[in-house]
Amino acid sequence: MNRRDFFASTAVTGLGLNLGAAEPKPIEKKARLRTAICAYSFRKELAAKQMTYQDLVRLAVELDVDGLDLTVYWFPENLDGFLMPLKRLAFRNAVEICSISIRTNCCQPTPEKQAEEVAGIRKWVDVAEKLGAGHIRVFGGSVPKGSTEDQAAGWVVEILKRASEYSASKGVTLGIENHGGITERAERIIQIVKAVDSPYVGINVDTGNFRKDAYNQLRQCLPFAVNSQVKSEIMDETGKKVNADWDRIIRMFAEASYKGYFALEYEAAEPAPIAVPKMTRQLNALAKKYSG
Question: In the list 32, 152, 188, 286, which could disulfide-bond 143, CB 3.0-4.6 Å?
């Protein structure tokens, strides 16, 4: 058998490929779980310039996490000269910048305000593309006084539809977060995502943000999850803040065949430089335990 025949035979029989099939083989329904650090965990240090985004790359290596979710609030105003060196540092250290997190308020009633929100999202889509991030966390916003929730949800849908047309052209997915306001309940978030009806819009599931009955609401969101930010605390059925049962949460994601990142977004009382390493070890272990 010559070299060409050998590789042809290996490609078809050894790897089980069907080169004549009209449809690609569906991806197996197994969870594929990865971990990340959310820059917001170190908001105090970043705001005080005691830590840089480059330091986060080095910390990701030290803590053996796969990626970073970069909250953009402390990016320099002049992005030139900042993005590419950061991307290079992450690449050279095998750390994926998987997501960036931005501020938005999509509950905008006028065409002018809606256009401003779309333009703002487009700007950050360009930044995500430069960094190689496939996801952007966005907020739905709060219902304006004098407006109904149904009206506000319609405005969110309109903005996300228009923004996702652009993000799709760059291969960037928008994840609307359960962040209070219009996104206080899982039912409403799911309705918005379904109405947008784009493969480039899903839910950025924040495990600590539902104000009550969090485990049940998280479960409802999982079929639409495109990214997750994991917190150390959660609201129980009565609305009381308690320690999050991470084993239960990660298992729920795995059972839903989630394939994506868990970005640790630390907000509790203990200083982040002390708490994050401990919690990252726990998150890494659970991701490995439940990943297919």
Answer: 152
